[in-house]
Design brief:
The chain is an alpha+beta fold. It contains 9 helices and 9 strands. Helix 6 packs antiparallel against helix 7.
């Protein structure tokens, strides 16, 4: 990738200076707005033209060096951080953000006093960082990110970002099972059945490489199992599974809406929304040029 010419040192902001220091320690960083949201999509990637998602989830970073994909834009590369493409972003930045999963850690974001009291009574002690309303408890190890695992508690790790608020105090502890368990959705009698989503099957037209209908059936069944068995990174697993199914069965016309419906049902049973399923399917087709 060819990056733009680095900006002059005298133009660096305080946020960029902090970011460059953190990058040398191996922490992938990115600029965040004062509202704590990520810098928006650049023109090249507007309307998801590059196949990524601007806030998180299905696809990784595009080929554009601008900070346009939130957690996926986080980097330790000083050439990218100081490029002219990122200069405006740093001037507009309100805070420095980082990708916890990329640094090999998980942040338990405790948003109020009640959440902090719960953590002190429930979780093993670890490195703690004070926030404006509560605390960040940081553990060594990664897991999928989930918001609202209980009142005032979010988990930020893979495919997410957090504010850099200082190194904190205390010794970094290993990610406990008690935190991993928070991300597992508990069954509810009030939970609705997965909603049917109609997505047109690929038109096909290529030569069918399947030896028999059983070959396709086995492939769909294996894809369902892969999604159902995902213990973490569900969004990424769904996207990769859709990509694999389309790569193997999407060009010859054998894949039907019934097959797609089975995959969507498996994904929704793992907590994916119909919209996320549709987006992941669309991104997979775009990646394959279908």
């Amino acid at each position: 990738m060819t990056h733009a010419t680095p900006i002059r040192r005298e133009a660096w902001t305080g946020h960029l200076t902090v970011a460059l220091h953190l990058a040398t320690t191996g922490l992938p960083v990115l600029p965040l707005r004062a509202s704590k949201g990520p810098v928006g999509n650049c023109r090249t990637c507007a309307n998801n033209a590059c196949g990524g998602r601007p806030n998180m989830k299905t696809a990784g970073p595009c080929a554009c060096p601008r900070p346009c994909h939130a957690w996926a834009a986080a980097t330790t590369n000083p050439t990218v951080l100081t490029s002219r493409a990122w200069a405006t972003a740093w001037r507009d930045a309100g805070v420095v953000g980082y990708h916890p999963g990329g640094a090999g850690v998980t942040v338990v974001d405790l948003d109020d006093d009640a959440a902090v009291a719960w953590a002190r009574a429930t979780l093993p002690l670890t490195r703690t960082v004070a926030t404006t309303r509560g605390e960040h408890w940081i553990y060594s190890g990664t897991m999928r990110s989930v918001n609202g695992v209980r009142d005032g508690v979010d988990i930020k790790s893979l495919m997410s970002y957090a504010r850099w608020l200082g190194p904190g105090t205390g010794t970094l502890a290993e990610l406990p099972e008690a935190v991993r368990a928070l991300a597992e959705k508990q069954p509810s009698t009030a939970r609705q059945s997965p909603r049917a989503v109609t997505v047109p099957a690929p038109a096909g037209g290529g030569e069918c490489r399947h030896r028999s209908p059983a070959y396709l059936e086995r492939g769909i069944a294996m894809a369902e199992q892969r999604i159902t068995g995902a213990a973490s990174a569900v969004h990424a697993t769904v996207y990769r599974t859709f990509l694999a199914v389309l790569s193997a069965h999407g060009r010859c016309g054998c894949l039907t809406e019934a097959h797609i419906g089975r995959l969507f049902t498996a994904a929704q049973a793992k907590g994916e929304s119909p919209r996320h399923c549709t987006d992941a399917w669309s991104n997979a087709r775009t990646t394959l040029g279908m």
